[in-house]
Amino acid sequence: MFQSRKLINPRSYQPSLPVPKGYSKAGILDSLVSVSISGSATGELRDYATADCERFLHTLDLVPQDAEGRMLEIGANPYFTTLLMRRFRPALALDLVNFFGPEAVDRAQEVVFRNFEGVEERTTFDFLNLNIEADALPYPDDHFDHIIFCEVLEHLTIDPLRAVMELKRVLKPDGCMVLTTPNAVRLENVIAFIEGRNIYDPYSAYGPHGRHNREYTRHELHQLMEHAGFRIEVSYTGNVHDDIGSAQASARIVNAAIQAQKSREHDLGQYLFTRWRNTPAGNAKLPRWLYRSYSEDRMA
C-alpha cells in the first residue's frame, strides 16, 4: 500500500483544505498574524497563527455554513476562531469563555487586526473567566444551538467528563458541538517513540493549564463523547503543518507497522477534528478506562 522508502503522508487521508469562497489561505493568514490583543503583539501569537492557520480553517468548516442562533466558544483567546466565526458565520451570536486563573479580573479584551477585507479594525470581546472543569456555566439548560470546544480538552487536569457534561447541559437537544484536540497517536509521535524521543509537553510558564495534560486517541475521544451522550457526525484526523522529526530515517519501520493494522493510516493526523450532536442519553458516572482511584459509587 505504501512506498517502503517514502513515509506515509497523513494529508493523503484527510479532506482538502476548506477555504471560504473568494478568499485564500494566504489572505486569511495575513489577517490572523496581524492580531494584537489589548495593545500587545507578540511573536508567540504570530507563530501560533502561522503554524495552525489550517486548523482554524478546518474548524470553521465544521460549523455548517447556514448555522444560526447562539454559539458558546470555550477557550476563545486569542480569538482567531472567534474572528473567523464572526465574519463567515454571521448569523451566530457568540458567547465567549476563557480561563486566566481564579485571580483574573479582566472580562473584556480589545483586539486590533487587519480584517479579512484588508481593513484595520478594532473590536472588543467580552468573556466569562471560569474553569470549565470546576465552575458551573451561568446559563440555563438547553441555551445554545452550537458550542466550540477546541484545543481545550487536552489542557484539563482533573475531570474532563464533568466539563463535557456541563457543556451538554447548556446545549440544546440535537445541538451541535465542534470539538478538536491534538491526536495522541499522530505520526510525529509514532516516529518520536521509534527514534527514542519523548512526546510529553514541556512545563509551561502559564502553569498546569498552559500545557497538554492528557491527549486522546481518536477511539478514546469517541468513547468519551458517546459516554456523555453525543452522536458523531464528522470525524477525521488532519495535519495542519509539517510533521516534526527525522521522518524519512524511520520510513520503512513506520510504514510496516502502519500496514500491519487495519485502517491505521486514517488515524495519523496531528489533530482530531470532530462534530457531534447532543442526544438525550448521557452517563455522568466515570468511565473506567479514563479514571482510577475514585470511590466505586462514582464509577460507571
TrEMBL record:
Gene3D superfamilies: Vaccinia Virus protein VP39. One of its GO terms (molecular function) is methyltransferase activity. The keyword Cytoplasm does not apply. Keywords: Methyltransferase, Transferase. It holds the Pfam family Methyltransf_23. Signal peptide: none annotated. GO terms for biological process: methylation. This is Class I SAM-dependent methyltransferase. The lineage of its organism: Bacteria, Pseudomonadati, Pseudomonadota, Gammaproteobacteria, Lysobacterales.
